[in-house]
């Protein structure tokens, strides 16, 4: 079963960390990714650009309208993610506990439905 492990960011909380703490979190991803590759559970991972670089497209009456910026004003935003393929929800939660962000803001774990089918 595939799971999306979402990394949320809060710029204010990030800035309160020391430079050493920020570097520790960023550098820990190398070992985390190595663990997932070796276990065969890594599918993909990506970091996302800051929400200020995003655009929202809405179509009304067949006409697209594009606005800049994030969809919602929030202190926390999606900063990156991992997709893992593992045996169970419990294993996905175990993997998430190894992520550096689990000690910082938490990691959201959600099943990917289309890989599992529409029934959960």
Automatic annotation (TrEMBL):
InterPro entries: Dimeric_a/b-barrel, YCII
Occurrences of domain YCII-related (ranges): 1-113
Gene3D superfamilies on file: Dimeric alpha+beta barrel
UniProt similarity note: Belongs to the YciI family.
Name the UniProt record assigns to this protein: YciI family protein
Protein's organism: Actinomadura rugatobispora
């Amino acid at each position: 079963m595939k799971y999306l492990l979402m990394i949320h960011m809060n710029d204010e909380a990030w800035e309160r960390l020391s430079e050493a703490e920020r570097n520790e979190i960023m550098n820990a991803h190398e070992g985390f990714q190595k663990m997932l590759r070796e276990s065969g559970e890594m599918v993909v991972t990506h970091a996302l650009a800051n929400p200020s670089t995003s655009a929202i497209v809405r179509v009304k009456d067949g006409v697209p309208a594009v606005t800049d910026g994030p969809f919602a004003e929030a202190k926390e935003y999606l900063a990156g993610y991992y997709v893992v393929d593992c045996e169970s929800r419990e294993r996905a939660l175990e993997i998430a506990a190894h992520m550096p962000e689990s000690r910082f803001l938490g990691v959201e774990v959600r099943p990917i439905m289309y890989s599992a089918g529409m029934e959960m």
